[in-house]
Amino acid sequence: MRLNSADAVAAAVYGQPGSGARFDWGLAGAAELGRVCSVLVVVDVLSFTTAVEVAVGRGMRVHPFPWGEQAAEYARRVGAVAAVGRRRTTPEQPWSLSPAALSRAPVVSDLVLPSPNGSAISAAASATGLPVVAACLRNARAVGRWLRQQGYGGTDTPVGVVASGERWPDGSLRPAVEDQLGAACVLDAISGVRGGLSVEAAMTLAALASTPDVPAAVRGCVSGRELTEGGFAQDVEVAVQVGVSTVVPVLRQGVFTAA
């Protein structure tokens, strides 16, 4: 179906044209930026991209996969270990979406890491053929340095930063404080790119400027409290370690490895 002129103009605007760094939310935002950007940065602080940073930092190759029972079958097909839900870990199966658990679990060469948000977005984004980077509070500065070193950030090589967000019970997107702040930390690290920031990216960065204590904000937000009250405070503590990592996980051919 061909778009009429009004729809075509709207579709172009959604890509935030004319800027070197752009920002959007969720799966739909990633799809939109994936049409027009040269690289996508996915942020899911609690907990997918933090878990990816931990696992890749320990030498594991991480395969993103949407949440569901099919992950185990996919893992068998590619010769990998499938991570399970946080509450389903056992001594024999210690790999899960928990960054704290992954920091202690035995290292495996290939890990399928499903999640309903960041992993699903990453898996879908990989189909674009673009490089996809996993960013979190721990490695946002390193991701920013890598993006600039690679020459991204011009109007002809724009960066798309995607905050994964969470889900309401009806499946709709719930914008999440931790992902907004994680995305803002990446944008802060590339704020001087020659193409400048889109309005959406600049407003996201402004949220960081008005947050005096990022770890405290993540601990106190809905997602942080949900994990803490569910018995996974250690995951929050791993995730709020700002700027401690130089690992830049890049997704190419369906697998996250260190850049």
UniProtKB/TrEMBL annotation:
Q: Name one GO molecular function term.
A: magnesium ion binding
Pfam families assigned: 2-ph_phosp
Q: Which InterPro entries match?
A: ComB-like, ComB-like_sf
What Gene3D superfamilies does UniProt report for this protein, alphabetically? Answer: ComB-like (3.90.1560.10)
User: Can you say what this protein is called?
Assistant: Probable 2-phosphosulfolactate phosphatase
Species source reads Micromonospora mirobrigensis
